[in-house]
User: What shape does this take?
Amino acid sequence: MSQVKGLCVMDVDGTLILEEVIDLLGREAGCEEEIAQLTSQAMRGELDFESSLRKRVSFLEGLPISVFDKVFNSIHLSPNVQEFISILQKNGILVGLVSGGFTPIVERLAKSLDIAYFSANQLEVKSGFLTGKLVGQIISPQIKKETLEKWREKLKLPKERTIAIGDGANDLLMLKSAGLGIAFCAKEVLKQEIPNHVDKRDFLEILPLIEFLE
Assistant: This one.
């Protein structure tokens, strides 16, 4: 691979894609309203992210893992995000996804977009069904930030060569830790703290903000 010139880490739900996957899973479990309400409170910073995630995941107990095929086929990429990613990659900027969502969806998205780095939550599965529990490390706001820093160090990049893009309260620490943090179609709590925001859902609007793009 040619010289890596930068790193762009993106949130997934509500940023890379239009939907919140947990809400779509909730629809399949018949409790979309309860889950969607908890999701929007968490994204606005009104609830602790980890405890609200555990509560939302508990509603998913009993869903078959085949649900991920259905959900993956019903999500939509944000406008021009594929073009945005390919412009970055052509300019030597690696793209990573870090998500409070779930590996079965985030891994497929990463593969379909030719993205090398990704990190997301793992749902516990027994005999082909979700148990309503999470396993392993929770991708909390702190872990999102630490993941960006870990990838940056691995690539031996200075902070000013890093970009982070997100929309919810759980992205705040990651955006602050990047050289360029961008609040994309973001909740008010994020816009108050992050000076760079793009309020039109079009990823090409982000390009002029990246100074080291040739």
